[in-house]
Amino acid sequence: MLDPIESESFNEREKKILDFWEKENIFIESIQNRKSSALFSFYDGPPFATGLPHYGHLLAGTIKDVIPRYKTMKGFCVPRRFGWDCHGLPIENEIEKSFGLSGAASIEEFGIAHFNEECRKIVLRYTEEWKKTVTRMGRWVDFSNTYRTMDVPFMESVWWVFKQLYAKGLVYEGFKVMPFSAKLGTTLSNFEAGENYKDVDDPSLTVAFPLLDDPQTSLLIWTTTPWTLVSNLAILIGPDIDYVKILEKSSGKYYILAQASLSHYFKEMDSYTIVQSMKGAELIGLKYMPAFSYFADRTQLGAFRVIEESSISTEEGTGLVHCAPAFGEVDFYAAKKAGIDLVCPVSKNGLFTEEIPEYTGQFVKDADKDIIRRLKGEGRVFHQATCHHRYPFCWRSDTPLIYRATSSWFVAVEKIKENLLASNREIHWTPEHIKFGRFGKWLEGARDWVISRNRYWGTPIPIWRAEDGELIVIGSIEELEKETGQKLTDLHRHFIDELVIKRGDKVFKRIPEVFDCWFESGSMPYAQNHYPFENAELFEQNFPADFIAEGLDQTRGWFYTLTILSTALFDQPAFKNVIVNGIILAEDGAKMSKRLRNYPDPLDVVEKYGADAIRLYMMHSPAVRGDDLSFSEKGVELVLRQILIPMWNAYSFFITYARIYHWLPVPNQHSKPTAVIDRWLLSLLNKLISQVEQGMDQYELSAAVEPFVAFVNQLTNWYIRRSRRRFWEEEASEDRNQAFATLYQTLLALSQIAAPFVPFMSESIYQNLRHSAMPDSVHLTDFPTYCQEMRDEELEAKMDAVQIVVSLGHSLRKEHKLKVRQPLAAVHIASGDPHILHFLEDQQHLIADELNVKKVEFSLNETEWVSLKAKPNFRVLGKKVGKLMKDAQQAINALNQAQLGELLEGKILPILVGEEVIFLSHEDVEVERSVHEGMIAANQGAITLALDTQLSEPLLIEGLARELINKLNTMRREAGFAVTDRIHIQIATTPRVEESFKQYETYIKTEVLALQVDFMKHLQGQEWDLNGEKAIIILSVVT
Question: Which of 144-148, 341-345, 731-735 has the least mean pLDDT?
Fold first, then answer.
């Protein structure tokens, strides 16, 4: 206890704390100690272990650590089970790269069993790196009992979830146009498609479709996907839109387009003649000549005609939209309604099939140029340009998506939309605006969720189908074993694909699809405990979660899928409270990129500054409020220098002087001190406890961290600085004892308050302050209890006033280049609040010392030494006086000093403006202050302060003495002298400095602990400038 502090880096100190936690099993003990306490349930979203953790993981991980640490200190039992997302495209991509595979055909030739087992081998490749980083960041999680989405118990629970949804009528197979990754050969969900939009340039093409019965007249359509024109089967129009048939004078051709689109295509009004106007409804049924003849036989089946679509607008294009039902959602439904069957001449790899002979095997978007060239050659292109727009890219392969009609399995989200909205109303969101904003609006527009993927390494969808379409849905291993007669050891595709179910004459074979990995992570609340097959009580205790946290992107990911499945299964949300963090960007605001290396390695930054600095930097940033954070290493360094080092220095200061004077705390003694500054500090400490509790209980991390940062500043820059001499008193006294006791109590409580945010430093401080009867770790203690008896809000307000006075004085000195070390004759303080003024009078010795002035004078009225001048606040007063402003200005100019003083005190003054009486308040005027010569003044709120800046010779001589003390103490620090070392000073300087020394010898020697001072004529030492006077100095320790 109160051992000397070793000189070591924060990084080295943190590593010792990690060793201590591991050796003493502190994390395990923190849970075991609370086993009989109320449970606080926390779900940890599973990351992929195929990549290394980045700053986004560190941010979310820190939030996931802060809340459980706090809740543990508040008496809850908080298990923290880690999990791994093991299935899906990231792992498959790695294996494809490793073995030179590309696409479904090559994987199936390689062998699904071989492919999946290779996936299994690498799926946990980086778990050790994850453990290292998570642990080094001070995050406590249970790595010994992780859940993995590839484990059989987890997969079986996913099957159970699916069967429950199927039984509720919430699963169906549908043929829909969905976002499709040609690179991966699989459908993506709508929320996945929204994850990776990019600004791209695509062709903008306006194409003419001649009418079958009137070839001289063409319908003009606009598209940015020329490759879809080969599959055109109809043209969509808005029935209520105004259309025109025009004659283009230069070509003699007739065109039909929306009237609102004319100005876009025809800049000169005299370049065309309107021949006919009509509503879109009048065009329905017109037949036209297709641009390509690949599906000409579809004419007999109702294709190549104008059909209705109410969603058509004229904001872009011509008001007529070409319809390729297989490649657009609107197209699909409009064609279906019109009885036109789709055609889909594009493979699952995004290549044209043999139905399009000229382009067979070509990637669709690569065919755009050839298609445009061909249409130009046939005179079909009316207008060509380039369109700069946002286009969705695959979030995994980073290749452009296409929209393609595909047979998929869906969860009928739209059926339960109202229930989802009701679930969301029960969730406490931080930041609050996400609840009905980003997340709420996403739920309002929720679409049915495609949950099937045409992939290999995933949980197989447990559906077996007979040739006649009859389905069997399996919900457990026991069911499948019973149906097939086979014993199962695994549920992956290569273990069950060949299993058939026979019922009578029917043979049922498994469909080939696997689950979207989001379905698995959304099933995590059930599957992590193998519910309902075991641990039913454990599940019920933990559901819904009290708390989860992830990044903003998860509003369309994990938060969304958790909510869908829990609402569908239990008609309630899966979590009660959620913190949504913003996205971490590179320092220049760009997306962090491994390729560009536009961010420092996280572990390098930890090694340099320590994990506490990164944690506090992120917790004290906009990221915990859901806003983006441009990560800056300088920002981490600033947190270290401005918050953590001062906090450590406060602790170091206490230990240093407690050891010098052999002071020891009396356990459990918390008597109320008598010194004003001690009572003020303990009041602020209890205010901090209340603020942090309130912020943490509301999951508002900013509201908890910001008061902590402010308190560290008050502790170091006010309390210790103002109390320093009390700790230096050679003779033991009650005042010195109170100072030590107050600082000890504060530092001990602060180590507990800060423990969730900066667990390493808090532990270091606590370990050296604790006595043997206290818990072994700060993280095993209870959070400090707020004590109303120690709170004195009036004292806090009064000390605020003192700090305002000091701040005003320092600002004036800085503005007018007057060093604080240079004494001034007087400070004049005025306030209309007599209570504040009375307290300031009581603290005048403190104010005089802080501002380095000889005299402090007080007044209720600043007009004694400040001249006031008012002018109208035109913005405010104009509403009162209107056109009489000139008269009002004259009346304001005529106000005397006493009247202006009354205005500043908040009184209302009646003034005559023209022939009207107007009641004037301080808001109606802007008051300017001017002071007498030789004075400078400033104002804040109810306090005005003026400094007398006239410097007499005695003041200048004292300023030299203080300047000398400053330089001598600087030399002590730079030489590494101990705070108790007595020194010998040799100095060669000017007569003026010598005179200053003679006058203030005792003061100077006391301040620098000098036993001997020798003035020399010549000296080879360190040279200093003392307010224009030269001094050469040598210091040595007196042994």
Answer: 731-735
Task: Report CA Rg, the chain.
Answer: 39
Q: Which one of 3.15.10, 3.40.50, 3.30.2320, 1.25.40 gives the CATH number of domain 953-1037?
A: 3.30.2320
Identify any residues that bridge with 402 across adjacent strands, giving them in sequence order.
180
pLDDT tens per residue across span 176-221 = 787 888 777 777 766 566 667 888 888 889 999 999 999 999 999 9
Catalytic residue among 47, 130, 226, 554: 554
Q: How far apart are CA 1032 and CA 1028, in angstroms?
A: 13
- For the question of residue 19 being annotated catalytic, the response is no
Position 189 scores a pLDDT of: 64
**CATH pick for 197-392 out of 3.40.50.300, 1.10.3720.10, 3.90.740.10, 3.30.70.2190:** 3.90.740.10
Active site residue 159: no
Q: What is the CATH number of domain 629-784?
A: 1.10.730.10
Q: What is the pLDDT of residues 272-316, one digit of tens each?
A: 999 999 999 999 999 999 999 999 999 989 999 999 998 899 888
Q: Residue 530 corresponds to which amino acid?
A: H
Pairing of strands 1010-1015, 983-989: parallel
Annotation marks residue 707 as catalytic = no
* Residue spans of beta strands (DSSP E) within 587-685: 629-630
Q: Which residue has the tokens 């502790």?
A: 715
Distance between CA atoms of 845 and 853, rounded to whole angstroms?
Answer: 10
Write the pLDDT tens digit of every residue in 361-396: 999 989 999 999 999 999 999 999 887 878 788 866
Q: 950-957: long-range contacts (C-beta < 8 A, 24 or more apart)?
A: 950/825, 951/822, 951/824, 952/825, 955/822, 955/823, 955/824, 955/825, 955/854, 956/822, 956/1027, 957/992, 957/995, 957/996, 957/999
Which of 97, 502, 506, 591 is labelled catalytic?
591
Q: What's the distance, Cα to Cα, between the start and end of the chain in Å?
A: 29
Distance CA 681, CA 749 (A): 12
Check 53, 68, 84, 85 and give the catalytic one. Answer: 85
Q: Give the tens place of pLDDT for each residue, 524-551.
A: 999 999 999 999 999 999 999 999 999 9
The mean pLDDT value for 786-813 works out to 94
CA angle 275, 316, 219 (to 5 degrees): 40
SS3 call for 313: coil
**Catalytic entry in 44, 46, 84, 222:** 46
Catalytic-labelled residue, pool 369, 594, 886, 1030: 594
Q: What is the pLDDT of residues 247-270, one digit of tens each?
A: 999 999 999 999 999 998 998 888
**What is the b/e burial string over 695-719, where b = at least 16 CB atoms within 10 angstroms of the residue's CB?**
bbeebbbbbbbbbbbebbebbbebb
Helices vs. strands in the chain: H and E counts, helices first:
39, 38
991 is catalytic: no
Its pTM stands at 0.82
Q: Catalytic: 518?
A: yes
Query: Do you find a cis peptide bond into 532, omega within 30 degrees of 0?
Result: yes
Q: Is 46 a catalytic residue?
A: yes
- State the chain's mean pLDDT as an integer: 92
Distance, CA of 967 to CA of 1024 (rounded, Å): 8
- Given 227, 429, 558, 648, which residue is catalytic? 558
Catalytic residue among 518, 680, 718, 865: 518
| Burial (CB count within 10 angstroms: exposed 0-12, middle 13-18, buried 19+), residue 293 | exposed
Round to whole Å and give the CA distance between 166 and 475: 10
- Domain covering 10-150+534-585 in this structure, CATH number: 3.40.50.620
pLDDT above 70: percentage of residues in the chain? 99
Catalytic site includes residue 594: yes
216 close to 288: Cβ distance less than 8 angstroms: no
The percentage of the chain sitting over the pLDDT mark of 90, rounded to a whole number, equals 74
Tokens of 879: 């509403």
